[in-house]
Amino acid sequence: MIEILQQIVNGVAIGGVYVLIALGLTTVFGILGIAHFAHGSVSMFGGYLTFFLVTSWGFPLLLAILVALIVGFVLGMLIELLAYRPVRNANHINAFIVALGLTMMVEGLNLQFFGHEQVVIPTNLSRVFDIGGVTIPELRLYVIIAAALLIIAMTLFVEKTKTGQAIRAVAENRDAAILMGVNVKTIPLVVFAISTALGVCAGVMVGSLFAIAPGIGEWLVVKGFAVLILGGLGSIPGAIVGGLVLGVTEALAAGFISSAYKDVIAFVVMIAVLLLRPQGLMGKA
Amino acid sequence: MKLRVSHILYAAALVGFILLPQLITVKYYLHLSVLALVWVIAAQGQNLIQGYTGYVSIVQAGFMGIGAYSTTLMGLHFGLPVWLTILLAPFVTALFALFAGYPSLRVKGHYFAIVTLAFNLVIFIVLMHATDLTQGEAGISGIPKPGREGGWLDFANREVYYYFVLIIAVAMTALAALIVRSRIGQTLIAIRQNETLVGAIGIAAWKYKLFAFVTSAMYAGLAGALYAHYQSFINPEIFGLAQSLDAILAVIIGGSGTILGPVIGAFVVVFLPEYLRFADSFRLILYGLLLVLATIFMPRGIVGVVGQLWARMAGKATR
Questions:
Q1: Core-most of A154, A228, B81, B158, by most CB within 10 Å?
Q2: CA-nearest residue of chain A to B121?
Q3: Minimal Cα distance from A116: which residue of B?
Q4: Is A113 on the interface with B (CB under 8 A)?
Q5: With an 8 Å Cβ cutoff, are A102 and B292 in contact?
Q6: Nearest in space to B36 (alpha carbons), one of B179, B230, B239
Q7: Are B248 and B241 in contact (CB under 8 A)?
Q8: By the 8 A CB rule, do B110 and A32 touch?
Q9: In-domain check, residue B10
Q10: Residue at B43 is within a domain
Q11: Closest approach of B140 to chain A, Cα-based (Å)
Q12: What is the CATH number of the domain that holds B271?
């Protein structure tokens, strides 16, 4: 029983990271119908940047994260403006190819700036808490808390603010939103800025919990899309539920079945959900 | 008139391909040309599902892997002759594709793309970890060439293998053209244009989609088998996600939904990264940038651009 709880706690931590990635992907998809494949690599860029600021320039961790967030914000807007906007009215496969090209560019930039080495963001958080037999490393706990706060903030932003309403309006019915006076030129910029910032947070979490290395970004974005499938494309509650389900499934699979095949098991669950509920766990029929 | 021009073009391309080994002086380019021809086969398959049916599948390299490993393992464990295992490999791949196609084809658009992508990852992980069978990351080496040793054709000779793959690539391209022109192919195009309408006039679209998916997988399996016996070495690395994306790029860059597109695209995808070697570590960035620019400025691929130029020139000439 303790063992199961332990794995669930582990799963929630990685699930939180998946949720942050998936929130970015799902809002971008909801607004623009784009599978933003470069999202993982951009997120890793944020993680790398944080690592670089901390180790080479001696920034305190929180300041480094703040700088990385601001860079992510700007980078997100540039990506929308320069890469996706020109293919806005083309076939959706074209936007996907642009996303692939972008992924290569960002992966190349990461290699160019930060090299091939695997890096871990240093945090100095080494205490381990023991709650009723379940051990939680301090860092993992903070990651869970930070992820939870970010998810709540994002949900409040989308549900309660004027901009959030505009985002939902464009996602629901683009033409009607235009008629209601929503500026459909700035909304994608806002969405990309926020999504990328969330991705940067996820990148920092991956970089401190595990490690950042070439290829991790692609792995992360694939998991993000798996979450979207699980939860329903474009759905924010779906991203949250799907991310946690995927994270916990993986942790349980790794703990009790096989750590080599944990991803296979996670994908099998995804495909099973798709067969039973093609619209995803939280998607509308 | 237009038909005749395109026939001359096909003939010229064929002559070009036949003469190519005589024109190439650098051995390495001959090697790349063989690889490019293998990719032509894989890309023709990808074009059937992506270009004609409009379903973007991201598992082509995974299916190449199944073809490559099945031909190798059948030869290794059952002692079957190479030509037979190459023939059987596409059918083994087809079995897997039937299994993968059934759940994935129930969904459309991005869902389909991501589910097939997941299948590619599953294939990759299994190839990596089922070490008893595949020897994992280390891969399998010493895969035999077709033909008897000391036979009248020496398949270890690159030039011979080039012509061997060329014949198959031409045959598979012709087969793709036949499929596209048949009633089945026309139905596939109709599915791309309006799947609801296809269903409404009483055609079971799923059968046709499954046919396109399985056929495209068989193309990939054949390409993978040819690759394995050419390189004499395989490991999971070459059948990953990145290579599946290359197959998609080959179709898009060449011109999706055209017969010549995948041929041109396959050569671009194999040769362009080599030519960008001068840029060294900027290569990936440059390649990505070229892709983005190409998609924005020539969304219909090289065939589309050339076709447009041709139409413009022909228009001027008649005037």
A1: A228
A2: A264
A3: B281
A4: no
A5: yes
A6: B230
A7: no
A8: no
A9: no
A10: yes
A11: 20
A12: 1.10.3470
Which H or E run includes B99? helix B82-104
Q: Is residue B266 part of a domain?
A: yes
Q: Which domains does chain A have, with CATH numbers?
A: 2-276 (1.10.3470)
CA angle A179, A180, A185 (to 5 degrees): 75
Please indicate if any CB of chain B lies within 8 Å of the CB of A153.
no
CA distance B72 to A271: 29
Q: What is the pLDDT of residues B204-235, one digit of tens each?
A: 888 999 999 999 999 999 999 999 999 999 99
> In B, which residues are within 8 Å of A108 by CB distance?
281-288
Question: Cβ–Cβ of A111/B107 closer than 8 Å?
Answer: no
User: Would you write out chain A's pLDDT as a tens digit for each of its 285 residues?
Assistant: 788 888 898 899 999 999 999 999 999 988 888 889 899 999 999 999 999 999 999 889 899 999 999 999 999 999 999 888 888 877 777 788 888 889 989 988 898 888 888 999 888 887 888 887 888 888 888 899 999 999 999 999 988 999 998 988 888 888 888 888 888 888 899 999 999 999 999 999 999 988 898 888 888 998 998 898 888 888 888 999 999 999 999 999 888 888 888 888 888 888 888 878 877 787 765
Determine the Cα–Cα distance for residues B120 and B102; give it in Å rounded to an integer: 15
CA angle B94/B100/B105 to nearest 5° reads 110
**Domain total for chain B?**
1
Residue B307 lies in a domain: yes
Domain hosting B294: range is 28-318
